[in-house]
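Q: What would this complex look like in 3D?
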Amino acid sequence: MEAAEIASITQHSGGAIGAAWLMIALPLVGAAVLLLGGRRTDKFGHLLGVLMAVASFVVAALAFVQLLGFAPGERRRGVSLFEFIPGLVDKVGLLVDPLSISFCLLITGVGSLIHVYSIGYMAHDPNRRRFFAYLNLFVAAMLLLVLADNYLALFVGWEGVGLASYLLIGFWQHKPSAATAAKKAFIVNRVGDVGLLIAMFTIFATFHSLTFSGVLDRAGDASQGTLTAIGLLLLVGACGKSAQLPLQSWLLDAMEGPTPVSALIHAATMVTAGVYLIVRSGPIFEGTGTAQLVVTIVGVATLLAGAIIGTAKDDIKKALAGSTMSQIGYMVLAAGVGPAGYAFAIAHLITHGFFKADMFLGAGSVMHAMNDEVDMRKYGGLRKVMPITFATFLVGYLAIIGFPLLSGYFTKDGIIETAMEHSAVLGWLAVLGAGITGFYMSRLVFMTFFGKKRWDAKAHPHESPAVMTVPLLLLSIGSIALGAYLILGNRFMIFLSPAVGAPEHLPEFHPFSAPGLATLALVAIGAAFAWLRYGAAEVPATAPRGSFLTTFARRDLYGDALNEALFMRPGQWLTRLAVFFDNRGVDGLVNGLAASIGGSSGRLRRVQTGFVRSYALSIFVGAAVLVGAWFVVGNL
Amino acid sequence: MTTHYLVLSALLFAIGGVGVLVRRNAIVVFMCVELMLNACNLAFVTFARQNGSLDGQVIAFFVMIVAAAEVVIGLAIIVTIFRTRRSASVDDASLLKH
Amino acid sequence: MNGTIPAPTIEYGMLAPMLVVFGAAIVGVLVEAFAPRYLRSAIHLPITLLSLLISFVLIVWQWVEGVPTKAAAMGAIAVDGPAMFIWGTILVLAFVSVLLIKDEGHFVGAAAAVPGSAEEEQALYEGAAHTEVYPLVLFAVGGMMLFPAANDLLIAFVGLEVMSLPLYLLCGLARRRRLLSQEAAMKYFLLGAFSSAFFLYGTAMIYGYANSLDLAEIGASLGVVGGQDMLLYIGGAMIGVGLLFKIGAAPFQAWKPDVYQGAPTPITALMASGTLIAAFGALLRVFWVALGGLDWNWRPVFYGVAILTMLGGAIFAITQTDIKRMLAYSSIAHGGFLLIGVIATGSAPAQNTSALSGILFYLVAYGFTTVGAFAVVTMVRDAGGEAWHLSRWAGLGKRSPLLAGVFAFFLLAFAGIPLTSGFFGKYAVFQAAVTGGALPLVIVGAVASAVAAFFYVRVIVLMFFSDPAADGPSVVLPSRGTAAVVGLAALATVVLGVFPQPVLDLAHSAAQSLFVR
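A: Here is my prediction, written as structure tokens for the whole assembly.
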């Protein structure tokens, strides 16, 4: 399948696109005001935060409209901001194209809704202002990540979202588990970041540039081996940020953060940055079949692993986190397929942003009602007391399992079909994953909303306030309709093609293809099985011991144990060894050098006697030497 | 021949320079600096004579004016320090060191 | 027409920025003479600030109108791109320094009174103040403007003296630690006079060689006049001595730590920024315009001087225990880095432009940072005045994190850490030097930077990771002026470190026209 050409970048100024930097600047200013303003801004902090996010959304929407006004071939608009280090990144600029604007709309749109929701969710938290400051910081960094026109600025945004994520996971730092989770996320992400950094070094060494236009247009010039190396290193970065195997372990712990954070950062936006990176660097991956193969394998492995973890979790947020891993696995799989899959990857990313945020916020609404209880075994029968939450959650649930005509149905089916065309094994594994999704999501819904009440006596569940339910309703509308709109008639693929290229033949949508029917059947079986176990039957209040398979899934497939055995222990040994060498060898050398410089300094400073005549002597002698030197040099 | 005057100027300059190095009294040190400036003046005037232009002589006047201004400032500083320390020795003022 | 002298033409418009400053200084003297004592400082401050402002506006105006390409006042003063850039920089920094100077408590009430005497008590009691400080500063600033613009060695000498004489006096006016202050004044005066005698003797030799003091004519006479090389060599070297002394290059650096330590801190700030900038402007002009054809001679000599200066400054600084002396040695080391830029000038115009613009940017960046750093020093005080000893700075980060943070930031800028102005300054100069073929110097510069980074970081570690002394110094609540100075310097350090391009462009276009030859 041959890719269509990626359009070249047109320099642009003026209008909303020219003001695209405002999108980043507004939330950044919000964050700065809230952080520097201190307690003085407590009263209106949350409102300012929301305002900045919404304003950013308005700019994004206007830029989107303006972008649509151009012919498809001219929809890649470069906005140059200022000149920077010559040679490395000549000009720092933004790139507004169909790909980045899709992300902008998702980030600012869903972000705004989550900001609004947080007003209610964080209403009783004394540090609400700080929370909004971090949220704004996150939005700004994420927008920089997707709008940058070079890898360097992308990396700045990449680190920025990492920082915001760290701050927000550990927002309730008084809980040791939250502090640990934040650290874990930070460290695991560093591993990925190192991959990205080395990828950038390699890119610069190969192409002598870090701008997208300078690198991607000339990707064909590099050798196969170099491209493979760059591709795999980029993948390491993507795995860290997007919680793909083998760097997945932080995401489940990250659920220690406040639920809006889980919805915005750890479901809808930040964790999809890896998918963005792969799609944006498409020309590099397209030049190397090896890297693409590895990407697809990582995607499939993660989608299965995430789904399996999801089946065994009793913590509602962790179950959802497993599901996030799994869904991003789908996206990575599609991104690894090449131009045929890019549109589906991004479309699924967008619809997933809606329905997963919807469900996370729904879960947050449930927790809000249940005194922050997260154990689903203590829920049950909530559909009657929380009708709006239930209805919106149900929509999200149906969307994610791929219920016909809802968003997830179209986008996930697209991925499965594309994967099937690429390789039957990958396709069928993706179908299997869809079946497991049907099971664990149904289990979650049945345990939470159906069956008998299993609440504590102290819990008095109630529907959440409008400030929380309205965002839920808006998100569920997106969860229903967006998929059909994007996929039918290949609307999104055509829109995206100037930015990422498109396959020669546009795929057609077959509602009754074999994989599609098989998916539906498996999902139905999974849901039915879940109904038998958790809907119709009594759910025990404490988790049964279960088979070793259940334990395996509960322990996150022994991901942490593996990390400990493989990295932590040898790491500790290595550290001890390094400390030993550092103390004996390196420090000795450095200290010796420092001591000799310091010693000579100590002796030399005696030259500064304080006597003006000795200073005059040094001038006199210096002058004599200078004159002498002139003569010597002059007569050479 | 103007060479003699140039040699004299160089000698005066050197005497002034060495004087700065060996004398302790701040006033004398300062007078040695003035001697150096006047050595320069002599050189200027000599060159003016040698090259047949008036510039050098005009420059000498400029230098005198600047030197006069320098005297004012210098004496002010030296007198203050003398009043404080009851000594005009430049070697006594050596608190600032190392 | 024998005996008649044609009246000189003087382009008052081009010289206006300088004339405004000198005019205001003279008005200041009149104020001292006629205004009642209690009104003086209220009159001086607006006059001083306003004149600096007007002068700056005039420069901007002239810049926009178009940079002149011909020397003014019968070729005596060159108002060209680099000169105007240097003027603008000096004026801004002088303005900032005056904000620092205006604070009460830096200057002695009666300089003539013996410290500890009844006279001094009386002066303190009466609240006497030396308001002469303002006109003196204006004269010094005027001299700083004249010096780098002088297109004639005599004017350069006059400029040098006009710049230095007021500073000699100002150094002796510190309110506290009178003995140190007086000693600094005396040392600065004697050594300064000594070195300007060398400058003058060099001038005389050059005059003997070229029969002119006009820089361009000297430049033209090189290679034309034969058999007088001795005069030329002695002259060039001795002029170099005078200029290198003002920069504080080794082996003429000995005055710097003593004077910087003893002088009132705001004056130190003015000297560390303004004098250095003016001296570099003059050095570049003299050695490029007049002695450019002789670069085969002076370049190797400066090579050695630069290496000695960089390494000397960095190594001496390591064991300093006094914050002001440490900053003085840091200033010496920076002078060495800037000399690399001077050596990087070459015969190709593009090379000259890039070296010159690098130096100009470095001067701006360093000027702001150093004024900010000294402003911070004025704020950390204990019973005896400013707390200079480094041990007193231990744990400052715990007592006043903001101030310590800003100071740490300045130190990082001195060290040349990316995202600070210092980084781009070094980058610009080093890059020009590499393309100019001075790679060994750049390597020495990098080593010196590494050594220097050590003592900057040492102070940061001291401030943030040591426990504060029980009777440690207190940080005074800054006056509006001091706070503005610190804020402005920090802002400039950040902005020049993140968006250096506008100033780089400005320096580049200033350097584009090069010096009027």
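A: To summarize the key features: Chain A touches chain B at residues 605-606, 608-613, 616-617, 620 (CB under 8 Å). The longest strand of chain A covers residues 77-83.
Q: Very helpful, thank you.
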